Amino acid sequence: MEEKAISVTGLKKGFDGNEILKGIDFDLEKGENLVVLGKSGVGKSVLIKCIVKLIEPDDGDIEVLGTDIRSLHKDDELNEYRRKVGFLFQGGALYDAMTVEENMRFPLERLPNKPDNDEIEKRIEEALENVGLEDTRKKMPAELSGGMNKRIALARTLILQPQIMLYDEPTTGLDPATSKEISHLILEMQDKYKMSSVIITHDMKCAEITANRMKVIKDGVFAFEGSYDDLSSKDDPWLKNFFE
Amino acid sequence: MKITESLPDSLQKFLINIAGIGRYSALFFRQIFRGPLEIREIINQSYKLGYQSLFLVTTTGFIIGMVMTLQTKPTLEQFGAESWLPAMVSISIIREIGPVLTALVCAGKVGSGIGAELGSMKVTEQIDAMTVSGANSFNYLVVSRVIATSLMVPVLVFYADAVSLIGSYVGVNLEGDVSVQLFYHQSLGALVFSDIVPAVAKTFFFGFAIGIIGCYEGVNASKGTTGVGNAANRAVVISSMFIFVIDLMAVQLTQLFI
Ligand SMILES: Nc1ncnc2c1ncn2[C@@H]1O[C@H](COP(=O)(O)OP(=O)(O)OP(=O)(O)O)[C@@H](O)[C@H]1O
Ligand SMILES: [Mg+2]
């Protein structure tokens, strides 16, 4: 059997006795784009934060690239694992005390075998070129527009060349045209770097552009699954709300 | 019933806070021995912190030196002991007022700054972003800042002592005529080893407390804008309290050994 990019079984997580995720199961195949849909507050962000160990699940197994992530305890192992899994935060999370260039440099300079300066320069150049923002190098994050902010955040995540990408609502808060651009950018990067991705969104346009497969969370479990066309043609009234 | 459950809520929270600060201190020392330190960030933070508080430390130092001199003067005059004035003022400044006042000023200015800065980094997920990029955010953010405060608070105290003595000199000369040389002899000549060493040593602890408490409160800020405000506020309140506790312990220890 081929190794899965991500394999989650029976994932449970609650906060203060309030159960949010109630048994999540899913697999992410290599090279696949899985879109996860769900209403605000169902725990979509919590789900992918469990995958990068920002949040400890209460129960369940998470295997990523064949490794049970519970077996990662030492800081070095954990950091090495985290570099393989890119995470795009809902708000971008650019370091606002640093320029765009310093933002990009930050993770590279902290690699265990730090690349030399030329290599770092080359990778920053390439990353900014990928997102079409070469001229923002010296800018501070506060000077960027929302769309630019997301692009730079994407570039900063991709600079470590992760094998898996987790996108937390990459297009929320952007106008429709910019959302579309970002969605296409995600596809392009996917293709260029041969990554597997989980994309969380409630932007249907983004889902339509990027999804190979979709899953919908309802009440702490996955309630629907299928391609974009499958789901959009279903008769379920709850589900229909998303597609209107 | 567990004993912890019988305590009032706010006291429980406070104790949890103190325990967290203790754990943070342990992590700090572990990280220091593991290395590597973020030298550039330490320099950067030290510079920022010194620069931020220089003006405040200068004004408070100068004014305190002068005011103490002016207020002590009439009393000493009654006893005809005016020539002791510089010695009295310098001993109280160097032993006590300089270190404590400067540390409190830094707790207000620097401690709250650290709390607010890390707090907002926390709520905008910047700290999480560092973590998931495989970088050691504790080393970069916390260790650098704590080293910076531990080194810079003593420097600022030294500077504040000097400025206070200048203030005192000006105070003496408002209605009098004492030469710089005489003032220098009268004030610093009175100081002995046991005045200076404990006074210097405790400033490192003041700096450490300001740094580690500011960082702890910032990193543990709760979501939302009030979370950041509360973090900054707690950083100031708890570190000011620690400064007095450390000061008290320093006095006790000094009396034990000297
Ligand atoms: N660290 C935490 N501590 C306590 N509760 C949390 C924490 N993180 C998330 N929650 C709670 O878990 C629930 C799900 O949060 P989550 O951020 O995953 O929602 P979401 O599906 O991503 O929503 P959105 O689309 O608005 O981002 C929320 O009710 C939130 O209050
Ligand atoms: Mg979310």
Short synopsis of the structure:
The complex is a heterodimer of chains A (244) and B (258). With 244 residues, chain A is α/β, with parallel strands linked by helices. Helices cover 38% and strands 25% of the residues of chain A.
Write the layout of secondary structure elements.
The complex is a heterodimer of chains A (244) and B (258).
Chain A: E1 6-15, E2 18-28, E3 33-38, H1 44-51, E4 59-64, E5 67-68, H2 75-84, E6 85-88, H3 100-109, H4 117-130, H5 146-158, E7 164-168, H6 176-193, E8 196-201, H7 204-210, E9 213-218, E10 221-226, H8 228-232, H9 237-243
Parallel strand pairs in A: 3-8, 3-9, 6-7, 7-8
Antiparallel strand pairs in A: 1-2, 1-4, 4-5, 9-10
Helix pairs in contact in A: 3-4, 3-5, 4-5, 6-7
Chain B: H1 3-6, H2 9-34, H3 39-78, H4 85-123, H5 126-132, H6 137-174, H7 180-188, H8 193-219, H9 225-257
Helix pairs in contact in B: 2-8, 3-4, 3-6, 4-6, 4-7, 4-8, 4-9, 6-8, 8-9
The complex binds adenosine-5'-triphosphate (ATP) and magnesium ion.
InterPro entries (chain B): Permease_MalE
GO molecular function (chain B): phospholipid transporter activity
Transmembrane segments (chain B): 54-72, 146-170, 190-214, 235-257
For this entry, give a set of tags:
heterodimer, A: 244 residues, alpha/beta, Rossmann fold, 2 domains, 6-stranded mixed sheet, 4-stranded antiparallel sheet, 9 helices, 10 strands, globular, B: 258 residues, mainly alpha, 86% helix, 0% strand, elongated, binds adenosine-5'-triphosphate, binds magnesium ion, transmembrane helix (chain B), membrane (chain B), Permease_MalE (chain B), ABC transporter permease (chain B), transmembrane (chain B)
